[in-house]
Amino acid sequence: MTSGWRRWMCLAWLCLIPFSGNAATPMIAAGAIETLYLNSDGTVWGTGNVTDYDPGATSPVRLLQLPNAVAVATGGGANFALLADGTLWGSGNNNAGQLADGTAQYRSQPQRIPGLSGIKAFAASFFGHFLALKEDGTAWGWGKNDKGQLGDGTRTNRFVPVQIPTLTNVTRISVGGFSSLALKDDGTVWVWGWTCCGAAGNGRSPANDSDPEMYHLVPSRVLNLDQVTEIAAGPHHHIALRADGTVWTWGMGGSGENGNGVFTSQLLPIRVPGLDRITAIDTRSSNNFALALRSDGIVWAWGSNSMGLLGVSGITYSATPVQVPGMSDVLAIASGVAHVAVLRRDGSVLAWGSNANGQLGDGTLQDSSQPHSVLGPGGTGQLNLLQPAPANFNRLPQVQVRLNVTSGPAPLLVQATASNASDPDGTIASYSWRTSDGQQATGAAASFAFAQPGTYQVVALVRDNAGGVGTARDQVAVTPSAAAVSATAKVAIGVKTGFALANNGRVLAWGDKSTLGLYDASVQNALPDANSRPIANGITGAVDLAIFSNTAYALQADGTVLGWGNNGFGKVGSVSALPHIAQPKLVADLPAARALAAGQEHTLALTRDGRVFAWGGNTYGQLGLGDIQTRFQPVEVSGLNGVSAIAAGNQFSAVLKSDGTVWAWGDNAGYQLGDGTQTIRNRPVQVPSLSGITKIFAIQSYLLAQRADGTVWVTGNLPVAIPSDPGPRSGPRRVPTFDGYVQFAGSYNFLAALKADGTVWSGGQRASLLLGIAGSGDIAGLRQIPNITDAISLGYGPTNCMAIRRDGTVYSWGLNNLGQVGDGTLAYRETPVLVIDETATNFLDLIPEVPNVIPRDKIPPFLLSTFANGDLSSTTLYADLRGIIPSGSFASATDSGKFAAGYNVYVAANVPTIPVSPYFQLNANNSWATLSWPMAEFLRGVALDSQTSLVRAQILQNVDLSSPVLAGSSIIVGYGTDPDEMLRSARYRTIFTVPQP
Predict the structure, then answer these.
(1) pLDDT over 60 (residue 8)
(2) Confidence band for 411, pLDDT divided at 50, 70 and 90
(3) Residue 553 contacts by C-beta under 8 Å, 6 or more apart in sequence?
(4) Which of the listed residues 321, 347, 379 is the one where a domain comes to its end?
(5) Are 359 and 469 in the same domain?
């Protein structure tokens, strides 16, 4: 080990443990659902869901069997070790390029991260981006970059390391959820990536997602900070340690994570009061809390106490540092997504918090707010990182879970059996069981009853004769009772996904696979990233949907609510510490509901007895609870009764009472609360001058209220220019342009409105792609969208809009990079097109009892499904073509029996930025060339002999489309007996548009 490296490690860990020969400095690294330990002998150990231990090791197991490890890290489901020779090695998940080898292949054995040497520090994000610091002071990154978290000036994911070009003389690096920090040798701090809520530390906070302040693509300096010695990046806030031992923090503060006694964001660094002589800091957790270690070994914590992260009981948050009980001899601290581990001076390790995967290493799967000792390898004794690790230790037993049923209507009785249990070096001593809703049992078999709809884990624990515990699990999807459900058809759109509710209670989704909400995880993981046609996600008893951004909810016929998707601020309401809930989970402690409303960071539920419950983010008091504390479970909004309707906007809420009055609370910067002020309200206040109201619509930062006479009153700033509109300062004002409309939908730069006659009207900015009118510029006021005359309901998102027709079919338009339009393509749609069904053989029909009347100009020449994997830098694209149009006839103009063999598939591309010869063709050898006539065939002699047959065309394979030259380019697919016949029959479709980088 070089003297330079030794000096760096002494600074990082205070030289409290002396070196002995080639010994390593012990350290700990806490991840999402795992913990890594570096022993002084250079060996690496882990608990929880580490490489090759799924669902989790309940006591330390040996990992990354490499010589002379000097540091460990974990993130994105991969485990890493930095060796004394300056090389970095990793194993585990590789689906997001964690291992930087240019593939997405899982690696059970450690392999060297290629292209890097002379590394002296490494940082891994829970969400898939990674930074390495070299001895020469340069920083390198790879993995996720959709929010600019790699600092290379782009938002393109990187599967091999790239240098951050503007950074030099770096001494420390740190990564948060979607942002990064660097410390330079002059004591200054630099930040890049997603910088909402003041996380840039420059005195500014972005107004919305399109504000350039939201994403810093290259490092920028944090103001008012110098003489910094340590940095720690959090999910939406950051902290720094100065040379004088003081701690400084900035960014989001809704959970008290800034430690200054209030629950507000800080746009510039502020000192955390009461902390001095601090030697280490940590704030990696996505649960918005922070840790600090004092020179006397005492640990301090503040922010959210979800899962008992503060190490104390009886409180939900602390906006000031609290001392973690029983800590007086700690050497190092580490926080994971929902758990904490600390290293003591005697080499032992304590851990507390979430333990669903055994990450606390105490031989159980029980969560704990009290610190527990981590067991030794094999579940015996106590882990001590100062003592040489045992060459031989008890191997954990193995087991499998067999369930007699994995899905069904409530109440569901499940028989679970532990099968194929074995122990490599002993015997099985006992079996025990637990479920995610708290049921427990013992024995090799057990029975469990699930009375409520939801998704539940069934976990088996098998103990061997030496005390080691192995685990295995399966899951159960409990649907509502099989009674018939009658629902009002509805469509809704998130930022990446389209949703539809059929009148029989079925929920379908399309677009980004991460928000589809499939019950079956194995099926979900097998899906492509972009899905252009609806997929049934297993929910069959829904009566309402509520979607905002990447979080979705389904209201069941029995009044229960299922939530899934982005769980930031606890929006899903399942009391889970995970940042993303992949499958629907029951929202706990909520009385029977009859309506839902989803805002940007919070959710409202209207109960059947007229009360309102709220949960999620509360930075602006939008929960109406009298404070600004985040809630992870529903809490009743006091003082409200007789409520008939609810609405949630960006950071504010509104309700309509049965007496026709409107009450609102939350953010008021845009006068959206209608009281003529810009004062934030954390309790419901009556909107003045509004009476006789029958409908309310909360959209972004404005509210629309309709009276029984059809007149519409507005608060806040509208996204469209309305002649003679006086603006929001004087309180609610009537906007005659809106009179007579029955529904409104929109975003910050777009508004759509539905008339009772079935026509749809839109206005706003052309750039939104939401106007639904070909070739239009920005529209002031509202203009009718052509050819829609029979709409009954609208659904909208930030980049898309949908309309349900009277016959139950659905129009959709807007962005389509992930298939969120649902028309079977990944091509942007400026005008409305019809959403196809699950089988891509007809159009989606949410009201099947009503006969369909399909406009002739809306029937494409053939149906297909288009799918994509990867990001712009590595795109795989394929399409399934079908030969049948919705009428049931084959697409061939002359053959009504079957698709004749001998048809060819043709693929072309249009690159509009190339002024000369912008068209290209793809041949059977997967080679692109300038288009010439007759076109070269991509596939020859295909045949479709039945309605269920299809032809799959694999068009792109890991192709880099990130060049600005390709932005806006499109791919066209068609088929025919020859190119001329294809043109005559107009049998071709644009299936893909290259999105902007």
Answers:
(1) no
(2) confident
(3) 545, 546, 547, 561, 562, 563, 587, 596, 598, 603
(4) 379
(5) no
347 token code pair:
């080499």
Residues 6+ apart with CB under 8 A from 386: 17, 26, 40, 346, 347
Asked if 527 and 865 count as a contact pair (C-beta separation under 8 A), the reply is no
d(CA 251, CA 421) in angstroms, rounded, equals 49
Task: Clarify whether residues 288 and 403 are in a common domain.
Answer: no
Q: Report the C-alpha gap between 550 and 928 in whole angstroms.
A: 36
Q: For residue 631, is it within any domain?
A: no
Among 458, 479, 500, the domain-final residue is 479
Rounded Cα distance, 817 and 540, in Å: 28
> How long is the chain?
997
926-939: per-residue pLDDT in tens?
A: 899 999 999 999 98
624's tokens: 């109406």
Residues 348 and 419 in one domain: no
Q: Which helix (H) or strand (E) holds 886?
A: none
CB atoms within 10 A of CB 920: 18
Name residue, tokens 């485990």. Answer: 79
Question: Quick one: the chain helix, strand, coil %, rounded to 5?
Answer: 5, 45, 50
Q: What is the pLDDT of residues 260-291, one digit of tens each?
A: 998 888 999 999 999 999 999 999 876 789 99
Amino acid identity for residue 766 in this structure:
R
Neighbouring residues of 950: CB distance < 8 A, sequence distance ≥ 6: 840, 880, 881, 882, 944
How many CB atoms neighbour CB 852 within 10 A? 14
Q: For the sheet containing 237-242, what is the strand order? A: 228-233, 237-242, 247-251, 266-271
Name which of 338, 299, 327 is nearest 34 in CA terms: 338
- pTM across the whole model: 0.67
Q: What is the pLDDT of residues 155-169, one digit of tens each?
A: 888 889 999 998 999
d(CA 100, CA 388): 32
d(CA 323, CA 8): 29
Which residues face 134 on adjacent strands?
119
Give the chain's domain count. Answer: 3
Same domain, 321 and 426: no
Could you give the strand order of the β-sheet that contains 542-548, starting from the edge strand earlier in sequence?
542-548, 551-556, 561-566, 580-586
Find the distance separating the first CA and the last CA of the chain, reported in whole Å.
Answer: 43
C-alpha closest to that of 504 among 165, 808, 184, 928: 808
Q: Are 597 and 647 in contact (CB under 8 A)?
A: yes
Indicate the range of 308-312, 501-505, 763-767, 901-905 predicted with least confidence: 901-905
Which pair of tokens denotes residue 142? 């790879």
27: its two tokens: 């350290």
The neighbour count for residue 902, using CB atoms within 10 Å, is 11
68-127 per-position pLDDT tens digit: 899 999 998 899 999 999 999 999 888 778 999 888 788 889 999 999 999 999 999 988
Q: Quick count: other Cβ atoms within 10 Å of Cβ 319?
A: 19
CB 377 within 8 A of CB 349: no
The amino acid sitting at 612 is V
Indicate whether 194 belongs to any domain: yes
Strand partners, 378: none
Pairing of strands 428-435, 454-464: antiparallel
